[in-house]
Amino acid sequence: MNAGAFRLDRFAGTPGDFHGLDLLTAPAPLVLVCEATHPAVVLGSSQRPDVVDAPAAEGDGLEVVRRRSGGGAVLVEPGAMCWFDVVVPADDPRFVGVAGDVVASMVWVGRKIAAALAAVGVGDTAVHDTAMVCTPWSRLVCFAGIGGGEVMAPAGKLVGVSQRRGRTGARFQCMVHTAWNPARLLGALVEPRPTVADLPPVATVTADVAAALPAAVAAVLTA
Q: b vs e for 206-223, b when ≥16 Cβ sit within 10 Å of the residue's Cβ?
């Protein structure tokens, strides 16, 4: 069984390039930070491309990307978020107890992230460990709903998590904002779409916390 330390690595490139990485062919314990070089609207695996207003997105300089994990649309803006993937081999002894359960595995990684947040000074968080909390817009916009394993703060949803599973392991895609800019995301979507006031609040962290968080996640996962 693979129980090595979780390596921390960084990838600089477009969101499309990042989502195109194949990290599950021969997975190793990894926390991979994406330093996006271009803004993008990233659609969930089951979303139709026609939810995007292509001319509006192009006019705003937004790449349109589809990820292989589920959930709603996410806006990626360089410097406005801490975006990292957690890759766990299916036979990792720290993971095998939850590897076969979608929700339990999400809660497992969410609790690790919450512990890492506490280690960098962000307390008073809670990991959502019950059924999906849906809103009228949660199928369209990722941060409009709350899924299993996602981390909540008093100000709102703090950590969004989606998952891609394979026979060899799991890839958890995680995002924490340093700045929340829903108007730009909504401007790239077609009607019907919510207004900013229709969306629930989203919590953010400082840039210092965002910079320290991935290493803290890797340390908590390794322990």
A: eeebbebbbbbbbbbbbe
At residue 161, the pLDDT reads 97
Q: Is residue 17 part of a domain?
A: yes
CA distance 185 to 164: 23
CATH number at residue 102: 3.30.930.10
Strands 63-66 and 74-76: unpaired
CA 98 to chain centre: 19
Summarize pLDDT for 68-100 with one digit per residue, the tens.
Answer: 999 999 999 999 999 999 999 999 999 999 999
CA-to-CA distance for 77 and 68, rounded, in angstroms?
Answer: 19
Tokens of 130: 């019950």
Q: In which domain, by residue range, is 97 found?
A: 7-222
Cβ(220)–Cβ(116) under 8 Å?
A: yes
Our count of domains for the chain comes to 1
- Who's near 158: CB < 8 A, 6+ residues apart? 117, 122, 125, 151, 152, 176, 202, 203, 204, 205
d(CA 160, CA 180): 13
Threshold 0.85, pTM exceeds: yes
